[in-house]
Automatic annotation (TrEMBL):
<dbReference type="Pfam" id="PF00059">
    <property type="entry name" value="Lectin_C"/>
</dbReference>
<dbReference type="InterPro" id="IPR016187">
    <property type="entry name" value="CTDL_fold"/>
</dbReference>
<feature type="domain" description="C-type lectin">
    <location>
        <begin position="84"/>
        <end position="188"/>
    </location>
</feature>
<dbReference type="InterPro" id="IPR001304">
    <property type="entry name" value="C-type_lectin-like"/>
</dbReference>
<feature type="transmembrane region" description="Helical">
    <location>
        <begin position="46"/>
        <end position="68"/>
    </location>
</feature>
<dbReference type="GO" id="GO:0030246">
    <property type="term" value="F:carbohydrate binding"/>
</dbReference>
<keyword id="KW-0472">Membrane</keyword>
<dbReference type="InterPro" id="IPR016186">
    <property type="entry name" value="C-type_lectin-like/link_sf"/>
</dbReference>
<dbReference type="GO" id="GO:0016020">
    <property type="term" value="C:membrane"/>
</dbReference>
<dbReference type="InterPro" id="IPR033992">
    <property type="entry name" value="NKR-like_CTLD"/>
</dbReference>
<keyword id="KW-1133">Transmembrane helix</keyword>
<keyword id="KW-0812">Transmembrane</keyword>
<protein>
    <submittedName>
        <fullName>Killer cell lectin like receptor G1</fullName>
    </submittedName>
</protein>
<keyword id="KW-0430">Lectin</keyword>
<dbReference type="InterPro" id="IPR042190">
    <property type="entry name" value="KLRG1"/>
</dbReference>
Length: 192
């Protein structure tokens, strides 16, 4: 048994136990500094603020211009008049001959209706009334002339007699009539 004890002692002596103490610090060790980037002064911030103010001002200006332009599209018409594409229209309920109808429009700083394009004609096609005096008259030398002096083109005036020299708008067509017939009329004025 003694031999076994000496073997154990020799084994104990050959094994040295080493203890090391390790301390952890709470702050990390300093890192190597990276080369600092050159920073521009706060110019970007000022530039962005300036752009934001500029775009805001531009947006407000555009909104005001749009509202102003829209008011041109929808003019302020007198009471009982109808606005359409920069003009105002009045539909009479009384009946007069063509010349008296024309005078009535002029007294309101307007003229008898002059249909200048297909959009305007489309508007008046919707009217279900029998007929209205319009500003179209037959001239012996020039044919059918609008009140503004333009010549009727691309349309036909239906006529039954050579003495019918004034035109009425009758259910989306132009019809010749004696200027002495009493009929309602349509006045038109441009509002700017």
């Amino acid at each position: 048994m003694e031999a076994s004890r000496s073997e154990i002692s020799a084994a104990d002596e050959s094994e040295e136990v080493m203890y090391t103490s390790v301390k952890f610090s709470q702050t990390p060790p300093p890192r190597a500094k990276a080369p600092q980037e050159k920073r521009a002064p706060c110019l970007w911030s000022a530039l962005l603020k300036g752009l934001a103010i500029g775009f805001g001002t531009l947006s407000i200006s555009l909104a005001i211009a749009l509202i102003w332009k829209m008011s041109d599209c929808h003019p302020q018409c007198p009471q009982q008049w109808v606005a359409y594409r920069g003009s105002c229209y009045s539909f009479s309920t009384e009946k007069k001959d063509w010349n008296s109808s024309q005078e009535s429009c002029r007294a309101q700083e307007a003229h008898l209706l002059v249909i200048s394009d297909t959009w305007e004609m489309d508007l008046f096609k919707r009217i279900q009334a029998k007929y209205f005096w319009i500003g179209l008259r037959n001239s012996a030398s020039s044919g059918w002339i609008w009140e503004d002096g333009s010549v009727l083109s691309d349309a036909k005036v239906h006529s039954n007699s050579p003495v019918q020299n004034c035109a009425v708008l009758m259910q989306d067509q132009f019809h010749a009539s004696s200027c002495e017939v009493r009929a309602p009329w349509i006045c038109e004025k441009t509002v700017r």
